[in-house]
């Protein structure tokens, strides 16, 4: 337990990854209201929208409108997702805090399906992006290895493959004299178990002891909180999550995919163990209820129903 | 990770603790069907009913009928819950496998509310039960300390208090020359976090190194799977759980209490880490779907929606 971080950094992805998978249209005003409520909870970063092809992801067709309507709050980063240089250029025209990102999938099949490019294709695209970052003096904010714990198309993913993809990401940014402020390992389709978390995080840490590692977890099979605990035990201090447990990946190739790890449940777990999140849990529970009312169906988060323990403590 | 048990023993409590909290009446035949399906999954023990006052728990008014209707399967223990000697005598008249149980709450207020007796009153009742066990040559099967991680009425529970109550249980059974085959620590109202699991299990283990310890976990605030992982890391090899995540405690004093830790999600977590459960996960997922159709509302279990990984593995 000595390895628990003292503080964790939570990147709230509900408005983007969460809303993205919802079938029904969500009003721009509701998206903005939710983002503003989240930004008021103390969460450090909110991923607001994705700048992707509206034909593939109709829910994100109003990305620019959402980005421009947000009443910004000081101290909060408002992020967005994009998959290629064109998406980034779109994103940069909005008031969002758009930094450089690079990513590879540990599964070639998933890479082609999700990004339309294999590893070589993505690395070529990343060089274009990195050129653009240098030309425009834009900081690199993160790198991600997706399907790092398994893939519905390719099955189990060897640990060495994740290390190899991390190495390629670090090498390509290294060509530009850059480092990855955080290397995120994503359990994109909910395959991870705590032993796999320990193995993959351990292998990456052993190879690059100074590299900050983040986890992007899904609760597809109920293991997300156990996986997060193992991450914390391994010293991971950066997590992507979604308020209310919103989310899922529309291209993951299986129906009924449960959402991202639930932000308020994760923050509760941390706070109960004395790990600071900077988050007002009661305010975040209110956000989860707001999310439920916006999407119009129950969300899987537990804390929003069980309530925090504050009212019972003497 | 070296401390993980090689095999865990799961006591399925869905038919009792799960159905008990359901508002609508559940047909006796549905209860029997669910119990028989569970017994076909490889789970070692199924808690079928409770022998309690039908005025307090109307759902269990047909306990005898259920117990007698079950088509028994060899190798499975069919257990029941009872709170006093009279309940045990009722239970003993059925074909269920009724052994002796003793329990105390770590919270006096919860004890009085849930059992109508404080610690002294329960110990006096346990002596009556233990006399009866000796007279009738009935084995003692378990002891339990409830609200071992916190209580909605009394708030935080000091670790020393749990050790004290465990000591009283072990002392009273010791008076009869008996031991507890398993000492179960219950997070009755969903207060536990992994650090508390480590502290309480660690304190009990330190005091009685040879005592087998079980965990009874609730997922009220989303921490159950992380708590189970910590239990496994501490070498705990016995868990109570409920298929589909059924459950909750009707006397716990808060609405919206989430259920017990979900059996199939827990079994999946174990199996993915190479810890044997003896359970056929696909069959158990079918049971969870059956439970959902019986109670007529969605249950919180995740694996029943995400599916196991078997079909994706090459």
Automatic annotation (TrEMBL), chains A, B:
One of its GO terms (molecular function) is hydroxymethylglutaryl-CoA lyase activity. Pfam families: HMGL-like (PF00682). It comes from Ramlibacter agri. It comes from the Bacteria. PROSITE patterns: PYR_CT. The keyword Metal-binding applies. This is Hydroxymethylglutaryl-CoA lyase. Keywords: Lyase, Metal-binding. Residues 8-285 form the Pyruvate carboxyltransferase domain. One of its GO terms (biological process) is ketone body biosynthetic process. Belongs to the HMG-CoA lyase family. InterPro entries: Aldolase_TIM, HMGL, PYR_CT.
């Amino acid at each position: 337990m000595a390895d628990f971080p003292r503080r964790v950094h939570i990147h709230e992805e509900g408005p983007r990854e969460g809303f993205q998978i919802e079938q029904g249209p969500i009003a721009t005003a509701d998206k903005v209201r939710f983002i503003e409520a989240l930004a008021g909870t103390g969460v450090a970063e909110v991923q607001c929208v994705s700048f992707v092809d509206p034909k593939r992801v109709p829910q994100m067709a109003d990305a620019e409108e959402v980005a421009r309507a947000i009443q910004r709050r000081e101290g909060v980063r408002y992020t967005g997702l994009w998959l290629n240089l064109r998406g980034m250029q779109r994103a940069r025209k909005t008031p969002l805090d758009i930094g450089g990102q690079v990513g590879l999938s540990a599964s070639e099949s998933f890479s082609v399906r999700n990004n339309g490019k294999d590893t070589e294709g993505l690395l070529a695209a990343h060089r274009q992006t990195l050129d653009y970052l240098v030309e425009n003096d834009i900081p690199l904010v993160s790198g991600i290895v997706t399907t790092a714990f398994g893939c519905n198309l390719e099955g189990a993913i060897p640990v060495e493959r994740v290390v190899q993809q991390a190495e390629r990401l670090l090498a390509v940014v290294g060509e530009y004299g850059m480092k990855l402020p955080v290397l995120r390992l994503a359990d994109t389709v909910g395959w991870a178990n705590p032993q796999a978390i320990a193995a993959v995080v351990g292998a990456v840490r052993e190879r690059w002891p100074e590299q900050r590692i983040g986890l992007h977890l899904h609760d597809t099979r109920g293991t997300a909180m156990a996986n997060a605990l193992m991450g914390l035990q391994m010293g991971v201090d950066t997590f992507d999550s979604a308020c209310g447990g919103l989310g899922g990946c529309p291209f993951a190739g299986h129906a009924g995919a449960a959402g991202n790890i639930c932000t308020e449940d994760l923050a509760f777990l941390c706070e109960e163990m004395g790990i600071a999140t900077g988050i007002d849990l009661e305010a975040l529970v209110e956000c989860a209820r707001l999310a439920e009312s916006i999407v119009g169906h129950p969300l899987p988060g537990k804390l929003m129903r069980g309530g925090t323990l504050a009212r019972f403590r003497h």
